[in-house]
């Protein structure tokens, strides 16, 4: 049976080894073992170590599992900001992160730029009272990315604030110096090519101390997924509640596969496929790069305006070839195309996609 | 390859059809479809309808998906109690539910009875200020259950308070009149026999109104998993964040299988296996029913004190026969045995288990 290939920006095509790992997981009773057993602790320890190895996370940074990246927005604000957060907002997801702060009773301030644009760090003015700067490194909704150098500039300019990085759709492509940020998080159903239902949250001692200080003041920092509660179990390679054991197992296995392939190789391939696609957008009369500035163009979520055609036309054209691409987000649903460029998407798939689109006529 | 059979009280043995449904899920791209697509909405709608059908949940009750039952403790308190909750505490999980209320800044009061005991409803005195009565229908840690009639008595005695029922390890065996409670929740890795990583939260209009009233007062009721946020998406058969799509799919399929078998049949079989096991505990010199009062003995988590032997001895004895049973919880780890009696555990498995244990000598 021929299956579709999903070039959608999450959930997306599974990493090509996942199906085999699922079989092994069933054979090895991964779904039945206790989350307090040595067998589970071994899985947890392996996955945490492999994720850190793949992404280059320093030894002293903590790594815990949550349910989604969306949950981490909530937990970060609960644990690491008593009164005020600051946000760079340029799309639907960065906007939602900002809104969470208000919903949790914090004062949230922001720098807003239009959908599809990036940020000029010189224009960023973080209020002194803001305790955390929240950035969305890769805006999945618009395909605008924040270069790591811009994040490092923020660190230099605001050394006292915590810097939290939403890297939902850029991991493992994103190559960042973790020592220049305080927290980073992602979900596994995008670049990692796994079934949805698991988030990964990385943070440093400064975040722990902030959470501890809020707790010491008698403020509520949540319950089972507060930083202290997560860490109390993480040191034992366990979780506060029964986790998505299968998801944690699969993440470790896919990290092993990616490590064998080599993260540098993966990153080069992502850049190669992105370059081909952006060049195509520039050359074809029905497509037009949505993010204008090259340095703000995401390498993993490639977005184009559709000229004189609709997303439905493009989608219907590709359907017989078993290629599924993403529509624009929200009000851009019919007027844009979003193409995921994750490690599981092979060069051959991109050649096929672009060859087909080359022949597309509205 | 011979696999172990897990008679552990969660995670437990997968429902025997899960492996086939996993294969179909992969073939049908369940892990790659967008959680905003019609294909996902169809899955959501089917699963919600089948769960309600299987459990006899009235049409007008809401059903939403969370990450775990543990999460529901937090969301219930955030959404349905402004100042005070009341708890029946007789084990580790009911105690943790109670503690969550304090962690969220509420005043929590409780009736405490010793581990392994049930409750005499005549002794329950709920303070007038308590907005929600929280009961753990089946204490997974001790094997003590709260009969549904006791819950109905609570409703008659305290019609103004919300009643929230933790049914984590008793669904789908539990046969309860939902109109006599306001909320019920469970995780799928116990009686439903599914991979961990999904919770189901059922609640009525009174809970919605309570959440709305707290929000109208300007209080924080959380973010993406507040009742209004969950319902806003649920009416469209969607979720606020990318959910465990595979888990939701599998839950619907297993409900269909259980509906074909018939929930009455399943409940009768559970009772039959429980009776056999409790009779065995009473007759064998190395076992002794932990929960003394018959009406408080759980039908789904069967707990015995071990007499003149340790859990390790029993466990090692069963291991060559590929049967995995649960140890006691916490400080009862070596001195008790916990046997899960879920729908996936066949009568034949119980015959084999009890025949073997019959021959056990410490």
Automatic annotation (TrEMBL), chains A, B:
Keywords, ordered alphabetically: Aminotransferase, Pyridoxal phosphate, Transferase
Keyword Transferase included in the entry's annotation: yes
Residue span, Aminotransferase class V domain: 31-328
Pfam families membership: Aminotran_5
N6-(pyridoxal phosphate)lysine carried by residues: 190
Taxonomic source organism: Rapidithrix thailandica
Similarity comment: family membership: Belongs to the class-V pyridoxal-phosphate-dependent aminotransferase family.
Listed cofactors: pyridoxal 5'-phosphate
An MF annotation (GO) of this entry: alanine-glyoxylate transaminase activity
Protein name in UniProt: Aminotransferase class V-fold PLP-dependent enzyme
GO biological process, one term: glycine biosynthetic process, by transamination of glyoxylate
Superkingdom of the organism of origin: Bacteria
InterPro entries listed in its UniProt record: Aminotrans_V_dom, PyrdxlP-dep_Trfase, PyrdxlP-dep_Trfase_major, PyrdxlP-dep_Trfase_small, SP_NH2Trfase/AEP_transaminase
């Amino acid at each position: 049976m021929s299956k579709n290939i999903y070039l959608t920006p999450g959930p997306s095509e599974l990493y090509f080894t996942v199906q085999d790992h699922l079989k092994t997981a069933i054979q090895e009773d991964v779904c039945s073992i206790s989350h307090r057993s040595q067998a589970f602790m071994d899985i947890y320890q392996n996955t945490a170590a492999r994720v850190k190895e793949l992404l280059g996370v320093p030894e002293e940074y903590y790594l815990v599992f949550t349910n989604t990246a969306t949950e981490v927005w909530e937990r970060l604000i609960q644990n690491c900001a008593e009164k005020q957060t600051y946000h760079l907002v340029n799309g639907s997801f960065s906007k939602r992160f900002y809104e969470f702060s208000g919903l949790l009773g914090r004062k949230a301030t922001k720098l807003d730029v239009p959908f599809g644009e990036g940020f000029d760090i010189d224009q960023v003015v973080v209020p002194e009272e803001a305790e955390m700067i929240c950035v969305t490194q890769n805006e999945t909704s618009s395909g605008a990315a924040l270069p790591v150098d811009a994040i490092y500039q923020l660190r230099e300019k605001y050394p006292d604030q915590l810097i939290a990085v939403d890297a939902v759709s850029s991991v493992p492509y994103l190559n960042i110096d973790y020592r220049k940020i305080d927290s980073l998080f992602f979900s596994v159903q995008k670049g990692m090519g796994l079934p949805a239902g698991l988030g990964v949250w990385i943070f440093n001692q400064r975040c722990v101390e902030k959470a501890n200080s809020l707790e010491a003041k008698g403020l509520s920092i949540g319950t089972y997924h507060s930083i202290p509660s997560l860490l109390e179990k993480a040191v034992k390679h366990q979780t506060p509640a029964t986790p998505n054991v299968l998801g944690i197992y699969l993440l470790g296995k896919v990290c092993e596969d990616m490590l064998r392939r080599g993260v540098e190789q993966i990153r080069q391939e992502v850049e190669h496929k992105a370059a081909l696609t952006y060049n195509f957008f520039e050359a074809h009369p029905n497509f037009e790069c949505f993010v204008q500035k090259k340095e703000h163009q995401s390498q993993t979520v490639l977005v184009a305006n559709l000229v004189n055609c609709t997303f439905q036309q493009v989608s219907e054209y590709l359907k017989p070839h078993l290629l599924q691409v993403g529509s624009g987000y929200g009000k851009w649903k019919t007027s844009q195309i979003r193409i995921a460029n994750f490690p599981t998407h092979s060069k051959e798939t991109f050649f096929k996609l672009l060859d087909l689109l080359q022949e597309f006529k509205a």
